[in-house]
Amino acid sequence: MKTKKQKAVTYWKKNLRYLLILLTIWFLVSYGAGILFKDFLDTFQIGGFKLGFWFAQQGSIYTFVILIFVYVRLMNRLDKKYGYDEEPSKNETL
Amino acid sequence: MSVQNWTYILVGLTFALYIGIAIWSRANSTKEFYVAGGGVSPWANGMATAADWMSAASFISMAGIIAFAGYDGSVYLMGWTGGYVLLALLLAPYLRKFGKFTVPDFIGERYYSKTARIVAVFCALLVSFTYVAGQMRGVGVVFSRFLEVNIDTGVIIGMIIVLFYAVLGGMKGITYTQVAQYCVLIFAFMVPAIFISIQMTGNPVPQLGMGTTLNDSSGIYLLEKLNGLSTELGFTEYTDGTKSTVDVFAITLALMVGTAGLPHVIVRFFTVKRVRDARKSAGIALLLIAILYTTAPAVAVFAKTNLIETVSDRPYSEMPPWFKNWENTGLLVFEDKNENGTIQYLANEKENELTVDRDIMVLANPEIAKLPAWVIALVAAGGLAAALSTAAGLLLVISSSVSHDLIKSVFKPSISEKGELFAARISAIVAVMVAGYFGINPPGFVAAVVALAFGLAAASFFPAIVLGIFYKKMSKEGAVAGMIVGISLMLFYMLKFKFGVFDGGKEAVDGLSKDWWFGISPEGFGAVAMMVNFIVALVINGLTPAPPMEVQEIVEDIRIPLGEGDAQVH
């Protein structure tokens, strides 16, 4: 049986691991694909887009949105597992 | 019906809607005034955050800036969206758990110090005032262009509207008007974009249309065509930039971190009920923002191609009516240097005969594409919604900084609930007046400073908040020193390289770019100042005692979602 404090510490460590993975992707799609490796990726083409240019003006933004929703799901699951999930509020709908 | 009449009708209707909402959602307590009572649903907060975030600059100027900057414009697209990932992952859930009213509240309590709170208030006021002046100006410009009143009258009308719902409703009024404003502005942005995308590429989704072939059965990709047109006229290829990689990197970073550190954005996450709602509403906000931010680069490509095709090497006498209309406003200037009666639009400044203000790309786009009058009027209503919603959010930060962080927390802690609410309303009125004054008498540097507000936020708040959450042993001395050094360095760099204060004024600025530190422009320097803030904070922290146990317990507590304190009067 874990103590309350240990539980909080492992929960926090899990959270930090998620952050590290998600922020690495965040960095790679924007600063990596959109800026540092842009010229290399521009040698590839998807439809009318050069790939590096697409990442800079479209792809990175789509990825950002997905990253946040992935984090929301991961953390909701983690909260539940550790018993930190909150009461559903009255105005859950809308 | 004429564009003018359509504009009166659409703007009148939307304004009536905002005022109606303001009357329905009056604030009766400080909790309602500062954080809308703390019970806003994630969707409503997401929409309000998106409207709060997207200012006149996003709506009117951004697509135009990208149209002329090509790939270099990506810094705004990535910078102003990527910050939400930082917000959702590093700040919003923990600040919601902390559960107070303002950003200086967090800084003041986490760093157990009045000094820290006062430094934070100073930074919040500096950032918000530089930002809000530009918004009032935006309101004035839209009014003057579409309703033919002069800019000053436009600013005053805008002031009265904002005053009405910000003072009456506080955060509660602002939140629900912003929900309505989001709907207006996104509709107004998307309708013309979809029309034009169908016209040019046959694809109704602008994000895809931008990457497909032209509608004229030539089989040429739109971007390829634009690259060709650009090089023909002597510009660099549209999909390539002229800025150095290090500068693009720095500007993107400064904008991202600045976004995550802007008080008027952060405070929105105090208004939801639970920690999980804070995470979710950050995701919803970015999703709603991304709709506009992924469409804007498409609009930029459509508009630039349309513009070049319509004007380049064509006789001046054959120009369509919109060309003359915008010439009258002075935002489009044609000067027939070689006197051959045709328009030479070229990269070479000596031979170029056409000067186009970036702002007209979004505003004139529907006219260039010959869309119906109601679509053109809709764009005016959308621009106003964008400017007003951002102005209101900023004014609330200013008024709560004064009434809550200065009066209630520092000068007169004994003030009653009623007295504080009254003080909040008075500060909101004063803030609107000051903002209006700057809107009518814009100091020449407003436009430049708005972009730099991000650098200031990045250099001050972001490190202090992140360290406050992720580093339990961070001491007040370290955090305060970091904020002061960070924001001072940013101010110094701005004054030196943006305003030429130490080298003989604005005229000297262009010559100074070769002296930029590491080749980084003032717009991107926030990234460096932020790093310096982190380093100073950590070094000083090593030399000073760790924070008291109860503060470390607060930090442990905000890391766990369960049992969050409701935002309470304290």
Characterization of this structure:
The complex is a heterodimer of chains A (94) and B (570). Chain A is mainly alpha-helical and 94 residues long. Chain A has one domain. Helices cover 72% and strands 4% of the residues of chain A. Chain A is built from 3 helices and 2 strands. Chain A has helices spanning 4-36, 38-41, 51-81, and strands at 45-46, 49-50. Chain A has a two-stranded antiparallel sheet with strand order 1-2. In chain A, helix 1 (4-36) packs antiparallel against helix 3. The longest helix of chain A has 33 residues, at 4-36. Chain A is elongated, with a radius of gyration of 19 Å. Mean pLDDT of chain A is 87; it is low at 89-94. Chain B has 570 residues and is mainly α. Chain B has one domain (3-558): Sodium/glucose cotransporter (Up-down Bundle). Chain B has 22 helices and 2 strands. Chain B has a two-stranded antiparallel ribbon. The longest helix of chain B has 51 residues, at 151-201. Residues 564-570 of chain B have low confidence and may be disordered. At the A-B interface, helix 1, strand 2 and helix 3 of A face helix 5, helix 10, helix 11 and helix 13 of B.
Q: What is the compact description of this entry?
A:
Helix content of chain A is 72%, strand content 4%. Chain A has 94 residues and is mainly α. Chain A has one domain.
Strand content of chain B: under 5%
- What sort of overall outline of chain A do the alpha carbons produce when their principal axes are compared? elongated
Radius of gyration of chain A (Å): 19 Å
Number of helices of chain A: 3
Order of helices and strands of chain B: HHHHHHHHHHHHHHEEHHHHHHHH
**Straight-line N-to-C gap of chain B:** 56 Å
Strand order of the largest sheet of chain A: 1-2
Multimeric state of these chains?
heterodimer
Domain count of chain B: 1
What portion of residues of chain A belong to β-strands? under 5%
The number of strands of chain B is 2
Biggest sheet overview of chain B: 2 strands, antiparallel
